[in-house]
Amino acid sequence: MLRWFLGGREAQGAVEKNTVLFIGEEQPKNSYTELQVLKGHFDIVRFLVQIDDFRFASAGDDGLVLVWNAQTGERLRELRGHAQQITAMTTYSRTTSDSAHTALITASSDRTLSLWDPETGNRVQTVSDLQSSVKCLLVLDRLDVWISGGNELCVWDRGFHLLCKTDHDSDAGITAMVELPKNCIAAAVDKEIVIYRLRASSSKSDTSVAEIRRLTDHQDSIRTLINVNDQAFASGSHVGELIVWDSLDWSIQSYERILWDEPLPEGPTQIRLNLQKQSEMSVQHLASDGERIVAAVGSGLYLYDVSTRTVAAYRKSAHDSNILHTMLLPDGQLISCSEDGSPASAGFFGMWTFGRSNKQASQQVKKVPELPGLRTLELTGDLIGHSGAVQMFVNFMDLGLVTCSTDQLIIVWKNGERESRFRSLSLFHKLEENQGL
């Protein structure tokens, strides 16, 4: 299931003008009324990466990396070389003597790393026989290096030469990384966030990476780690903790815990929703637009305002199962997808709003007296297409949305009115060329 939210905040009984949904205006309708199904994978498709304004790459458990044109749906290249499932994928800008273009870096369970040229489909570089599978990749364009995270953190140059690495960390390994100021990196390792400092040098032999701090404030495994803005990054844990950190001194800016069962003793701000299973309190995904953070917590969504350090909105049951991916779009929309697998709900995504609440929503807000301004998220639309869990999505703005799923399919969702208009214009041009015949 993939769903959308849209809207803003309400203040003193009126909707502020920085919102998308205003009093007296009609609620935005779902414009994604046309879809194009892309086939090519033979197993679960877990990753989508945008290459440029028109192209994207998909990868998953079949070890294949496919390059597509989002506008036409054409499969442009098949990148074959990995023997097992893809575990991470990212883009990498490369500059040659002629021009600059975007390459792809992939990691696999076969313990290899590969650099691909999506223009030709060729594997340019590869590293094999790694000590462990790589779970995450991070490109540091400013330092002209990239980093792989597994049971150890490795720093590589553009030629795929290993510059330095850390010692074997733990059996859990590094599951997520973000870049911080002053050549620092935050890496999630089980319950801890490890801060590393990279000392780069023009001489490859002098480049080094060293651990300088461990943040041990989470009570359980960290599931997601993101940059919020230049001053903050955030992490979410298996027990519903959301922590916003200062990017410079790594202190806690704010701490929230979303409770599904028992309230915590006095301490951090708490929001208690209805009773749910212990497994549904995990923060599965975080996304931010620099001002707000959306946390996917079990099957619910939780919107947090960074500047005011308050809850802006929530929806305790946004999906029928765990939410896997979220995004805050520039126009104020919120989109989410989940692993919904029941026959009645598989393969949806929808649009939501966090503007004015209805009577029922207002009654729900009253159950949280310590957060009187809390809003609920209102569904504005569902899209049906996939028959399995939607793993993630990429937004191509005017060209539409791209989703991938356990059903092995990729779907490009398009604005039906826009596509119809383009087809009409194309037909008129052909009639003019043939003098109306």
UniProtKB/TrEMBL annotation:
Keywords: WD repeat. WD repeats lie at residues 38-78, 79-126. One of its GO terms (biological process) is regulation of autophagy. GO terms for cellular component: lysosomal membrane. It comes from the Eukaryota. Signal peptide: none annotated. PANTHER family: WD REPEAT-CONTAINING PROTEIN 41 (PTHR22805:SF2), WDR41-RELATED (PTHR22805). This is WD repeat domain 41.
